[in-house]
Amino acid sequence: MNLKQLRKSKKLTQIQAAELCGLSRKGYQNLEEGKTKKKNSPTLLYCLTRLEEYGVSHAPSEKELRKTAPSWASSLQCDFLYCLGGMQNGKDSEGPLLLFGNFRLEEWELSSMENSMESFFGKPVSLLAFSSATTREIEKVLGSGIRLYPTRNAN
């Protein structure tokens, strides 16, 4: 599939594709029309990759989050884990995945866990510790967060 076909399959305008690739509209247009010096230029390969990845989400569904939550809760040394942000109506959404719990790890360990989780989930992850949360943040999590661990039917 060439660049133009790929762009059209993603329902993008040339301007949108250019912004996604970090090019001017004219630069992108020249690339799409084959007005570059090399057929396999790094810029062309980069744009093909960016367009192929556009709209593809690697973030897990609510079901997948619930399935992996016990192991994450164990790694984070917490008794409860809620998800707020990054999920909307059980589906992936824009923005970071916010996980809330009573983590018993040092700050540097939480930062390391965020990096591991970002690699796993394919999107930014922020961990909000119960001990550092405001009353308003806690109310928001309990009101609109998704309880991942323990599950409601756990004993």
Can you tell me about this structure?
The chain is of the alpha+beta class. It is built from 7 helices and 6 strands; from the N terminus they run H-H-H-H-H-E-E-E-E-H-E-H-E. The protein folds into 2 domains: 51 residues, 434 Repressor (Amino-terminal Domain); 88 residues, Beta Polymerase, domain 2 (2-Layer Sandwich), CATH 3.30.460.10. The strands form 2 sheets. The protein has a 4-stranded mixed β-sheet with strand order 5-4-1-6. A two-stranded antiparallel ribbon has the order 2-3. Strand 2 and strand 3 form a beta hairpin. The mean pLDDT is 82.
Q: Main traits of this protein?
A:
434 Repressor (Amino-terminal Domain), about 50% helix, four-stranded mixed sheet, Beta Polymerase, domain 2, 6 strands, 2 domains, alpha+beta
